[in-house]
C-alpha cells in the first residue's frame, strides 16, 4: 500500500526560506486544532491589524480636512469673487461702448446692472480678504493697498461714465462739425439762398434779351449748384461718407464757375441787384470758410467728443482696474494652490500610512496563508492528489492520515472507499471507455452536420462584419471540440494580416495584432495558400512572438485560408490547449475547409454591406455639409443684398457680371429726382427728426423703384438717381415707359406722404421735381481694386439732373428722346426748348400730364397743374353733384379773394 507523502519544496528562492521555517515551527501547534479554530486565529490577527491601519489613517486625514475646509471657505470664494469682478467690469466697459456706438437705452440698463454686480463683488472680495488670518504667500503683496487703488480708480470712473452718457445724448456737444453747421453755417446758407432767389426773381422781371436770359441761367446754375453743395456738405458732416465730400467739391467747382460768370457779366444791373450781388458776395465769402473747418472737425480725433474721452480716459481707468483685479486674482490663486498643496500633502501622508498598513497586512496574510496552506491546504492537496491517482486508475494509492481534524477523518474514509472500489471497477472501466468512444464519435458527427447547416443558413445571412467573424470563430471552435480560435484578415494594402476576432485564450489579446507573411501559423497559411496542421506546436520553429504571451499553453493548432475570387482574404485558425487530448486529423482538416468556404462567402457579403453602408454614410455627410454651406451662403448674401440693387446683386451672384473694374456704353433711361427747397424747409427740424423723415421718404421711393425694375444708383441727400437698362433690360422703349410710369407713381405717393406727415405733426410742403432723359451712358464698376461702385457717368446723366432742376413743383420733365419712346403710352405737353449749361444746343422738353390709359378714363376732365394749384373737374357732373361742385368752387374763390 502506498501513501501520499508530503512534498518537500525544492529549489525555493533564498528569500522565502525564513517564511517556510516559521511555517514549519507553527504547524505542530495548529495540527491538533480543528479547521474552525485555525480560521478563528488567522482572522482575529487580520482584524486587529485592520483596526490599527484605520486608526492611523483617521489621524492622518484630520489635517487634510482642515486644509480642504480653508480652501472651500476662503481661498476658492476669493478667487471666484475676483474673477466675477473682472467679468462685471468688462460688462460695464462693453455697455458704455455699446451705448456710445448705438445710443440704445438697453446698454445703459446693462451698465447699471453690471455696476451693481461689480460693487457687490467688491464687497464680497473685501470681506473674504479681511477674514483671512493665514500668512500671505507673497510677503511683498499688499492687498489693502491694491483695494485702495481700485477704489480710487472706480471713484474716477463713475462720474466719467455719466459725462459720456450726457455727451452721447447731446449731438451738438459731441459732434463739433455738426454744431458748426447748425449754429454758424445755416444762417449763411439761408441768406445765400434767399439773396439768390431775390436776384432770380428780379432778373425774371426784366426784358427777355439774350444777355438777360444768359444772366438768369447763370443765376439758376449758381442756385442749383449751391443747393447740391449744401446737400453734399450736410451729408458728409452727418454720415462722414467720402462720396458726399466729393459731391460738395464737384458742385463747388460748378458754383465757382457760375459765380464767376455772374460777377464778370456785362449785363446792366439795377441798383437793387447790385446791392444783392454785393451782399451775396460777402455772405458767400464768409460761408466758404466753414466747410474747411467742418472737414477738419469731422476728420480729426475729436470728431466724436464722447468717443475721444472714452478712448483716452475711460479705457485706461478700466484697464488699470482690470490689472489690479488680475493681481488680486493671481494672489488668491496662489493661496488656493498653497491650500490645495497642503491638503494634498496630508492626503499623501494618509496614503503612505494606508500603504504601509496594507503591506504589513499583506505580509501577515502571506504568513498566515502559508501556515494554513501547510496545515489545511497541504493535506487537502495531497488528498486531492491521491484522489486524482485513483481517478486515473491507481486504486492502490492511499492517503496518509496527518492530523486529527476533519481532514484526517476524510483521509481515513477515503482509504476505505478506495479499497472497496478496487475490487470491482476493472471491468466497468473497460466498458465505460468503449461506450464513451462510441458516444464521442456519434456526437461529433451530429455536431459537424448541425454546425455546417447553421453556418450555411445563418452566417451567410449576417451582414455585420464584427458579429459575423465572432460567430464564425466560435462555431468553428465548437465544431472541433475546443474554445480557442481566431480570424486574421488581410489589410486593405495587402501587406499584413490583422487579427479581427479571437475567442478562448486569444480573446485576451488586443484586437488589431498584425503578422507579416510567413510569420506564425496565420502568416504561413497566407503565404502558402494551403491548410496547415501542427499537432506539436510547442516544438514548431515557426511560432510567432505573441504566442509566448498566451495564458494557456497551446499544444496543437490548425488553420485554413479564407478565399475570395481565388485570393486569400483571411485565415481561420483553431487550437487545442495542453488540457485537451484531441488532435487534428484529415477529417478535421476537410471539415474546416468546407466551413471556411462557407465563411468566405458570408465574409464577402459582409464586406460588400460594410462598403455600401460606408458609401451611404459619406454621401449623407457630404449632403449635410453642402446644405450647411448653402444656408450660410444664403444668410451672407441676404445681408450683402441690402447694399446693392437687386439686379446688380443677382447678376454678381449668378456669375453674369464679374467684380472687376470695367465699364461699357449702353443706351439707358436716367431718372433724377429732388425735393424742392428741402434744406430750407427742414432747417427747423432736429437732426433725428430729419433723419427719420428722410429715411421714410427714401424707403418709399426705393420700393417703387424696385417695383418697376429700376437700378438704384445712389441717394444724394434727398435726391435720387436711378436708371433703367442695366444690368437687366426689357428693351430701350419698355425701359423708358417703365421709368416714366415709376415717376408718376412717385408723384402720387408723394401726395400721400404729405398727408401722412401732416397727420404726424410735420406740415411740410414737400414737392418732387423729376427729370428723365434717355441716351448713351458709360455704366460699370468704377473705383479701385479694393473698393468700387457700380454707377453711370456721362452727359446724358447731367442732362437728367438739369431737367429735374427746371421741372415744375410736383412735375415730371422729359427730354425729347425719352418722349419719342413713350409718346404712345404717356400724355405730355411740349414746352419751349431749354438752354442748359454744358449743352451747345437747346434741349426739347415735355411736361408729363399722365398715362394715356388713365387719361382715357378721364374724358372731358378739366385739369390744372401749376405750382401748388392742382385740380381736376369732370364735365360729366350732373344734378346735385354739379351744384355741390359749383358751391365748393365759389366758396374757395371767395376765400382766396379775401
UniProtKB/TrEMBL annotation:
Gene Ontology cellular-component annotations? membrane
Organism superkingdom = Bacteria
Write out the GO MF terms.
Answer: adenylate cyclase activity
**What is this protein called in UniProt?**
Adenylate class-3/4/guanylyl cyclase
Which organism is this protein's natural source? Rhizobium altiplani
**Any idea where the HAMP domain is?**
374-426
- Give the record's keywords alphabetically: Coiled coil, Membrane, Transmembrane, Transmembrane helix
Where the record annotates domain Guanylate cyclase, the positions are 669-804
- Transmembrane segments in this chain: where? 39-60, 177-202, 214-237, 353-372
From which lineage does this chain's organism come? Bacteria, Pseudomonadati, Pseudomonadota, Alphaproteobacteria, Hyphomicrobiales
Q: From which residue to which does any coiled coil extend? A: 612-639
Alphabetically, which GO biological process terms does the record hold? cAMP biosynthetic process; intracellular signal transduction
Amino acid at each position: 500500500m502506498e501513501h501520499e507523502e508530503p512534498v518537500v519544496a525544492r529549489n525555493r528562492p533564498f528569500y522565502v526560506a525564513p517564511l517556510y521555517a516559521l511555517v514549519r515551527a507553527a504547524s505542530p501547534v495548529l495540527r491538533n486544532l480543528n479547521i474552525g479554530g485555525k480560521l478563528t486565529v488567522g482572522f482575529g490577527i487580520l482584524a486587529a491589524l485592520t483596526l490599527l491601519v484605520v486608526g492611523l489613517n483617521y489621524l492622518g486625514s484630520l489635517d487634510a480636512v482642515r486644509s480642504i475646509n480653508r480652501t472651500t471657505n476662503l481661498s476658492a470664494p476669493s478667487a471666484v469673487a475676483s474673477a466675477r469682478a473682472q467679468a462685471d467690469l468688462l460688462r460695464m466697459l462693453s455697455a458704455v461702448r455699446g451705448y456710445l456706438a448705438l445710443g440704445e437705452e438697453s446698454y445703459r440698463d446693462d451698465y447699471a446692472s453690471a455696476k451693481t454686480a461689480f460693487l457687490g463683488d467688491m464687497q464680497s472680495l473685501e470681506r473674504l480678504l479681511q477674514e483671512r488670518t493665514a500668512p500671505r504667500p507673497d510677503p511683498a503683496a499688499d492687498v489693502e493697498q491694491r483695494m485702495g487703488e481700485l477704489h480710487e480708480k472706480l471713484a474716477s470712473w463713475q462720474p466719467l461714465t455719466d459725462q459720456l452718457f450726457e455727451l452721447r445724448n447731446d449731438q451738438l456737444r459731441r459732434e463739433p462739425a455738426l454744431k458748426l453747421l447748425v449754429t454758424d453755417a445755416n444762417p449763411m446758407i439761408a441768406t445765400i439762398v434767399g439773396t439768390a432767389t431775390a436776384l432770380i426773381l428780379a432778373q425774371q422781371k426784366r426784358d427777355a434779351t439774350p444777355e438777360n436770359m444768359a444772366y438768369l441761367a447763370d443765376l439758376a446754375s449758381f442756385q442749383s449748384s449751391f443747393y447740391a453743395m449744401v446737400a453734399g456738405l450736410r451729408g458728409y458732416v452727418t454720415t462722414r461718407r467720402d462720396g458726399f465730400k466729393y459731391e460738395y467739391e464737384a458742385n463747388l467747382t460748378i458754383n465757382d464757375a457760375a459765380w464767376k460768370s455772374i460777377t464778370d457779366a456785362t449785363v446792366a444791373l439795377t441798383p437793387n441787384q447790385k446791392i444783392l450781388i454785393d451782399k451775396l458776395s460777402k455772405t458767400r465769402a464768409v460761408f466758404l470758410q466753414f466747410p474747411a473747418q467742418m472737414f477738419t472737425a469731422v476728420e480729426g480725433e475729436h470728431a466724436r467728443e464722447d468717443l475721444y474721452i472714452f478712448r483716452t480716459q475711460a479705457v485706461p481707468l478700466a484697464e488699470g482696474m482690470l490689472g489690479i483685479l488680475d493681481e488680486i486674482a493671481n494672489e488668491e490663486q496662489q493661496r488656493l494652490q498653497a491650500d490645495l498643496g497642503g491638503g494634498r500633502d496630508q492626503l499623501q501622508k494618509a496614503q503612505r500610512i494606508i500603504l504601509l498598513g496594507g503591506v504589513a497586512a499583506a505580509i501577515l496574510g502571506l504568513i498566515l496563508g502559508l501556515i494554513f496552506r501547510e496545515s489545511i491546504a497541504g493535506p487537502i492537496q495531497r488528498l486531492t492528489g491521491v484522489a486524482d491517482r485513483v481517478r486515473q486508475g491507481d486504486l492502490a494509492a492511499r492517503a496518509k492520515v496527518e492530523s486529527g481534524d476533519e481532514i484526517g477523518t476524510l483521509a481515513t474514509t477515503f482509504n476505505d472507499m478506495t479499497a472497496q472500489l478496487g475490487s470491482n471497477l476493472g471491468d466497468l472501466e473497460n466498458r465505460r471507455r468503449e461506450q464513451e468512444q462510441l458516444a464521442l464519435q456519434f456526437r461529433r458527427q451530429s455536431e459537424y452536420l448541425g454546425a455546417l447547416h447553421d453556418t450555411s443558413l445563418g452566417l451567410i445571412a449576417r451582414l455585420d462584419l464584427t458579429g459575423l467573424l465572432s460567430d464564425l470563430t466560435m462555431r468553428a471552435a465548437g465544431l472541433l471540440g475546443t474554445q480557442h480560435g481566431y480570424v486574421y484578415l488581410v489589410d486593405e494594402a495587402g501587406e499584413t494580416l490583422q487579427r479581427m476576432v479571437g475567442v478562448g485564450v486569444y480573446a485576451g489579446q488586443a484586437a488589431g495584432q498584425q503578422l507579416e507573411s510567413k510569420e506564425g501559423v496565420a502568416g504561413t497559411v497566407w503565404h502558402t495558400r494551403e491548410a496547415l496542421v501542427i499537432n506539436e506546436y510547442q516544438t514548431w520553429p515557426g511560432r510567432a512572438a505573441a504566442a509566448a504571451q498566451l495564458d494557456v499553453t497551446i499544444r496543437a493548432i490548425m488553420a485554413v485560408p479564407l478565399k475570395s475570387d481565388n485570393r486569400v482574404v483571411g485565415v481561420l485558425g483553431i487550437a487545442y490547449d495542453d488540457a485537451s487530448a484531441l488532435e487534428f486529423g484529415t477529417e478535421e482538416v476537410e471539415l474546416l475547409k468546407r466551413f471556411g468556404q462557407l465563411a468566405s462567402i458570408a465574409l464577402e457579403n459582409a464586406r460588400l454591406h460594410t462598403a455600401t453602408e460606408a458609401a451611404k454614410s459619406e454621401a449623407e455627410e457630404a449632403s449635410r455639409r453642402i446644405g450647411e454651406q448653402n444656408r450660410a451662403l444664403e444668410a451672407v448674401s441676404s445681408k450683402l443684398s441690402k447694399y446693392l440693387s437687386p439686379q446688380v446683386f443677382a447678376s454678381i451672384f449668378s456669375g453674369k457680371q464679374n467684380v472687376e473694374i470695367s465699364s461699357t456704353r449702353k443706351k439707358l433711361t436716367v431718372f433724377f429726382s429732388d425735393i424742392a427747397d428741402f434744406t430750407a424747409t427742414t432747417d427747423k427740424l432736429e437732426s433725428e427728426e430729419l433723419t427719420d423723415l428722410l429715411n421714410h421718404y427714401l424707403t418709399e421711393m426705393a420700393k417703387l423703384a424696385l417695383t418697376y425694375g429700376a437700378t438704384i444708383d445712389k441717394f444724394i441727400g434727398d435726391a435720387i438717381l436711378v436708371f433703367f437698362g442695366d444690368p437687366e433690360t426689357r428693351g430701350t422703349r419698355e425701359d423708358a415707359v417703365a421709368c416714366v410710369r415709376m415717376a408718376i407713381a412717385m408723384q402720387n405717393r408723394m401726395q400721400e406722404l404729405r398727408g401722412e406727415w401732416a397727420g404726424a405733426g410735420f406740415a411740410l410742403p414737400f414737392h418732387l421735381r423729376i427729370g428723365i432723359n434717355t441716351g448713351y451712358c458709360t455704366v460699370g464698376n468704377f473705383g479701385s481694386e479694393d473698393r468700387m461702385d457700380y454707377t453711370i457717368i456721362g452727359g446724358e446723366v447731367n442732362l437728367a439732373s438739369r431737367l429735374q432742376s427746371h421741372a415744375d413743383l410736383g412735375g415730371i420733365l422729359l427730354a425729347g428722346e425719352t418722349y419719342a419712346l413713350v409718346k404712345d403710352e404717356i400724355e405730355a405737353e411740349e414746352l419751349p426748348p431749354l438752354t442748359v449749361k454744358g449743352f451747345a444746343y437747346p434741349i426739347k422738353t415735355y411736361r408729363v400730364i399722365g398715362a394715356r390709359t388713365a387719361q382715357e378714363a378721364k374724358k372731358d376732365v378739366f385739369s390744372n397743374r401749376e405750382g401748388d394749384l392742382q385740380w381736376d373737374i369732370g364735365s360729366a357732373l350732373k344734378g346735385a353733384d354739379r351744384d355741390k361742385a359749383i358751391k365748393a368752387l365759389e366758396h374757395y374763390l371767395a376765400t382766396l379773394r379775401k
